[in-house]
Amino acid sequence: MGRVVLDMTVSVNGCIAGPNGEPEWLHEWFFAPSPESQAIVEEQQRSIGAMVMGRRTYDQGASQDGFLDNPFPVEHFVVSHSTPEQVAKGDTVFHFVPDVAEAVRRAQVAAGEREVTIGGGAQIAQQCLAAGLVDEIRLAVRPMVINDGIQLFDATALRLENIGVISTPQATHLRFQILH
């Protein structure tokens, strides 16, 4: 089975969003990439075999028709205790799974040898880290500070090995292997 990768964009102070889910421009590096960032985007698109996200991330994307032109045409596993009455528009296949460990397990089966990306929601990321489900952390650190934002990391202690750094004009991309 493929690796499980926590892949998030963060501010310099570790926020994945403001208190109300903003700012959208935190993710500009991905949706309007510089030539240097384009190679990173393309590598992500090639390596991902399935995604795991939380219900809040799913709901935000669905409310903005964010899955109509999904750059990741893979199965998405949404950690949620309920299924929406109407699934998000677009061709993306969604599975609603009540348990984070079960969502990751099912995503690994769907991904085969490709990676499973934990791609949305600080709570889901924290649960996956606390449960020891993540093999690698990839952070796109944007040159900004978000006050009162949603922090990616909680009090979970992690030992990491630096396995890569790529600096682009839009973000510094960090890769860490989790040492178990």
UniProtKB/TrEMBL annotation:
Matching Pfam families: RibD_C (PF01872)
InterPro entries from the UniProt entry: DHFR-like_dom_sf (IPR024072), RibDG_C (IPR002734), Riboflavin_Biosynth_HTPR (IPR050765)
Annotated Gene3D superfamilies: Dihydrofolate Reductase, subunit A
Molecular functions per Gene Ontology: 5-amino-6-(5-phosphoribosylamino)uracil reductase activity
Origin superkingdom: Bacteria
One GO term of the biological process aspect: riboflavin biosynthetic process
Domain Bacterial bifunctional deaminase-reductase C-terminal: start-end pairs: 4-158
Name under which the protein is recorded: Bifunctional deaminase-reductase domain protein
Organism per entry: Salinispora tropica (strain ATCC BAA-916 / DSM 44818 / JCM 13857 / NBRC 105044 / CNB-440)
Taxonomic placement: Bacteria, Bacillati, Actinomycetota, Actinomycetes, Micromonosporales
